[in-house]
Amino acid sequence: MSAPLILIADDDPGIREVLAFQLEDAGYRVLQACHGTEALKIYQEQQPDLLLTDLRMPIKDGHALLQSVLKIDPFATVIVMTAYASVEAAVDIMKTGAFDFLVKPFKEEEVLSTLERGIQVAQLKGENKRLRQALQETQNGELQSRSDKMQHLYQQAHSIADTDANVLINGETGTGKEHLAQSIHRHSHRADNAWIVVNCGALPEQLVEAELFGHTKGAFTGASQAREGRIASADNGTLLLDEIGDLPLNAQVKLLRFLQEGEIQAIGADAPRHVNVRVIAATHKDLHSMMREGSFREDLYYRLSVITLHLPALRERREDIMPLANMFLGQSAASHNREPAAFTPAGAKLIENFGWPGNVRQLKNFCERWALLYAKKELTPEILQTDLASNPQSNHWQLPPEGVDLAELEQQLIEQALSRTQGNKTQAARLLGISRHTLDYRLDKYKINTR
C-alpha cells in the first residue's frame, strides 16, 4: 500500500522545502503548491490524504482554500498553519472545518505528531465514506434482485450475518462477491466497527505477510517505521480477503494459525497479539482443484468455509438483468448530471439475452458508458449491438499465436482508461473493472505518472 500523500500549500518556498524534507524523511509522499488556487487544482487531480496549508497566502488564502476543498470533498482532512496565535483564530479555523492548526514557528516533532493524528482521522473518514457508499449500493442492489436465487442467497447471508462464523463466497468474476460480503457485515453486530478489504491478488508476494500481519521498525530492509497490519486494523470488525485463491502458500500457513488461535504476530515482534476479527473470504477460483494440486491448503479451506455462499452468474438469473440495468443507467446519469437514456423494448430484450461474461460489473460499466454517450436517447438494438460487439470481453478475445506481453498490455489499458477519464482514478478503475486500491498498486508498479 502506498504511503500517505500530503499536499503542502505555502507561499514561502523555504517553509515548503523544509516541511517536504521532514515529511518525506518520515515516509510520506509530498506534493507542493505556492498558493491556494494551485493547491485546489492539485487537490482535485491528485486527491491527497491530507492538506497542510498556510493561512495567509496570495491569490487564494488558507480560509478560502479550506472552504473550496470541503465543498468538493466533505471528508477532507485539513491542517492550517498560522503565525497568528490566538484563541479566536484557532476557534475560527476549527469551526470552518479544519482538523487542527499549527502555530509558526513549529518544531518537527509537533508537525509529525499532528500529521500522524490527521492521517488516522483521514483514514477513518475515508472508511466512513466508503461504508456509506457501500451501504447505499448494497441496499439498492438487494432491492433490484428479483430472482429466487438471489432472494434465497440474501436470506441465507442475513441469517448468518450476526454470528462470528467465517464465510467463503465463491462465484465468477464480477458477480458481486464484495457487495454480498458488505451486506453480511452491515447486518452483523460488528456493523459499527471496521470493515477492511484486502485484495490478495493485488499484493506482491514478498509483501503479503507485512500487509496482513504488520511489521516493527527495522524488521526488514526498508521498514523505516512500524506499521499495523490489515488484520489488526480489522480488530472487532470484519476482514474481507478477496481473491483468497491468490494467497501464497507461506502466507496461508500464517493465516491458518491466526484463524486457529485468534492471534497475530507482526514481522519482527517479540510476542503475538490477540485480535477479534470476523473473516469473509471470496474467490472466483476452484479451490477444490487447487487443493488437489497442492496450491491451496485443505485445512485452511475448511477453516474459511464454515459457511459457503455461491453467487450465480448473471446469465443464470436473467430476470435481474433489466432491473439492474435500469438502476445503473439512472445512477450513472444522475452522478454525471445527464438526462437519462432509456431502453426500447427491443433493446431490453437484447440486453436480457446477452451472455454477460463479465457479469454485473460488465453490465454496470456498459450502463455508465451508455448514460454518458446517449443521454436522453433511446437505446435501440442497433446502438447496443455495436457497443457490445466491440467489447473484447464480449467477443471472448483469443490469445494470438505469437502471444502477448501481458504487462505491456495491462499498462496500455490503464493509460487508455486514465486518458478517457481525464486522469480521474476512480472512474478509470471503474472502466477497468478493478478497485481504486488495485489501480493505485498498478500505477506504482508500472510507474505511470498521473499528473
Automatic annotation (TrEMBL):
Span of domain Sigma-54 factor interaction: 143-372
A molecular function GO annotation: sequence-specific DNA binding
GO biological process entries: phosphorelay signal transduction system; regulation of DNA-templated transcription
The entry's keywords: ATP-binding, DNA-binding, Nucleotide-binding, Transcription, Transcription regulation
Domain Response regulatory per the UniProt entry, residue ranges: 5-119
Gene3D superfamilies on file: 1.10.8.60, 3.40.50.2300, Homeodomain-like (1.10.10.60), P-loop containing nucleotide triphosphate hydrolases (3.40.50.300)
Pfam family, one: HTH_8
Keyword Nucleotide-binding in annotation: yes
Record PROSITE patterns: RESPONSE_REGULATORY, SIGMA54_INTERACT_1, SIGMA54_INTERACT_2, SIGMA54_INTERACT_3, SIGMA54_INTERACT_4
Listed InterPro entries: AAA+_ATPase (IPR003593), AAA_lid_NorR (IPR058031), CheY-like_superfamily (IPR011006), Homeodomain-like_sf (IPR009057), HTH_Fis (IPR002197), P-loop_NTPase (IPR027417), Sig_transdc_resp-reg_receiver (IPR001789), Sigma_54_int (IPR002078)
SUPFAM superfamilies: CheY-like, Homeodomain-like, P-loop containing nucleoside triphosphate hydrolases
PANTHER family: C4-DICARBOXYLATE TRANSPORT TRANSCRIPTIONAL REGULATORY PROTEIN DCTD, TRANSCRIPTIONAL REGULATORY PROTEIN
Protein name (record): Response regulator of zinc sigma-54-dependent two-component system
Organism: hydrothermal vent metagenome
